[in-house]
Design goal:
Blueprint (H helix, E strand, L loop, with lengths): L3 E5 L4 H12 L3 E6 L8 H5 L7 E4 L5 H11 L3 E4 L6 H6 L1 H22 L4 E7 L22 H20 L3 E6 L2 E2 L8 H13 L6 E3 L5 E2 L2 E2 H11 L8 E3 L5 E2 H11 L8 E3 L17 H7 L7 H27 L6
Parallel strand pairs: 1-2, 1-4, 2-3, 4-5, 5-6, 6-11, 7-10, 8-13
Antiparallel strand pairs: 9-12
Helix pairs in contact: 1-8, 3-5, 5-6, 7-9, 7-11, 9-11
The chain binds NADP nicotinamide-adenine-dinucleotide phosphate and ligand F7E.
NADP nicotinamide-adenine-dinucleotide phosphate (NAP) binds next to helix 1 and strand 5.
Length: about 325
């Protein structure tokens, strides 16, 4: 009998990669999607997932919908990836962020506790919890100092996961994942904003790229590598929390430089900064120490930062070429005579 996994946030970047990973492992994959006026399944389309997963409507804001879903699916493993995940929005919508990203975790844990406390649970914690970093690199014991409503909400989600493990003996794990990116990343995050702009500028569809803090440093990895770590955490004999990171950091300036090099352009001619894109409180630097994951989970990241940037830019170049060709075909349809 195949194992069943339930993924909240299956329409997001990580949801798509995790669904593909679990299908390849032989899982029956179920995904929770919230109701929207139009379907947002583009990422699942990219990975040809739409017909291979079972989708169910429920919402992190609605306790009973989650209980009903877990009763119906009877999963062996639940991966809680759903969240309001964009840091700037957490400053403009702090209460909604707390409802989704913090209390949403308790709603999923409560549903599991009520229906079947034997279900294994993964919580998508974040390096944003380290915020104003207290040591470098950051590991599982580094104190948190979140710098955004998002980081604060994730710290709540992290501790409530630990609390349910300690209080009720649940197999609940928290993965403290550092930034991970891919061609499926939303265009509002800096890596994809840059790769998309480099491709569009190359083909004359855009003149400038406006960014915020070029000095910010992040430990960027590939999302496809990181979802394996989520699964590995739930296959251990004991539940625990793990930092998942590459251990190497780069600045936003390095990112821009590499992306524009890939398209053969000098970034200094195209990039401008705008103080409106600075955050009320910034996380200046993050760099993770994933030694525990390396030794206990035998997990290592496979894709380097340079490969990641090249892959993202190449995929955006292909996409831009396809859209130019489609526009040309629409403007100049073939004659039928
Ligand atoms: P993402 O692309 O923004 O996806 C977020 C997902 O959450 C989407 O599927 C979204 O659904 C869903 N969602 C939001 N609010 C919901 C609600 N009320 N009910 C049900 N679903 C809801 O995020 P990601 O990059 O894949 O990240 C996955 C998780 O890891 C998130 O929790 C994020 O905070 C965390 N994380 C990410 C990173 C990273 O670098 N990517 C690092 C550390 C932690 P819609 O499609 O309907 O919007
Ligand atoms: O910003 C700087 C910005 O929005 C990275 C989420 O997945 O990772 C992500 O959060 C850095 C910041 O990601 C622009 O100030 C400069 O210092 O790509 P980002 P993030 O805030 O690190 C963590 C681990 C998560 O958990 C989150 O869910 O880049 N930056 N100029 C910019 N950032 C953006 N978005 N746009 C700019 O124009």
């Amino acid at each position: 009998m195949s194992r069943r996994a339930l993924i909240t946030g299956i329409t997001g970047q990580d949801g798509a990669y995790l669904a593909e990973f679990l299908l390849n492992k032989g899982y029956e994959v179920h995904g929770m999607v919230r109701r929207a006026s139009t379907e947002g399944f583009e990422r699942m389309g990219h990975l040809q997932l739409r017909d291979r997963v079972h989708l169910h409507q429920a919402d992190l804001l609605d306790q009973l919908s989650i209980i009903t879903l877990i009763k119906e699916v009877k999963p062996h493993e639940v991966y809680n990836l759903a969240a309001q995940s964009f840091v700037p929005t957490s400053f403009t919508q702090p209460l909604l962020t707390a409802e989704f990203t913090a209390l949403g975790v308790t709603r999923v844990l409560e549903a599991i506790r009520d229906v079947d406390p034997g279900i294994r649970f993964y919580q998508a914690s974040s390096s944003e919890m380290f915020g104003r970093v207290q040591e470098e690199p950051q590991n599982e014991r580094t104190p948190f100092w979140p710098r955004s409503p998002y980081g604060v909400a994730k710290a709540y989600g992290h501790w409530i996961t630990i609390n349910y493990r300690e209080s009720y003996g649940m197999f609940a794990c928290s993965g403290i994942l550092f930034n991970h990116e891919s061609p499926l990343r939303s265009k509002e995050f800096v890596t994809r904003k840059v790769s998309d702009a480099a491709a569009r500028i190359k083909y004359g569809l855009q003149d400038k790229l406006i960014l915020g803090n070029l000095d910010a440093q992040r430990d960027w990895g590939f999302a496809g590598d990181y979802v394996e770590a989520m699964w590995l955490m739930l296959q251990q004999s004991e539940p625990a929390d793990y930092v998942i990171a590459t251990g190497i950091k780069h600045s936003v300036r390095d990112l821009v430089d590499l992306a524009f090099q890939r398209v053969g352009l000098d970034w200094k001619k195209y990039v401008e900064t705008d103080s409106h894109l600075l955050r009320p409180a910034e996380v200046n630097t993050l760099c993770g120490d994933a030694s525990l994951a390396r030794t206990k989970l035998c997990w290592t990241p496979k894709m380097s930062f340079a490969q990641l940037v090249a892959t993202m830019v190449d995929e955006d170049l292909k996409r831009v070429r396809r859209s130019i060709a489609a526009e040309k075909a629409a403007a100049d349809p073939p004659r039928l005579d």
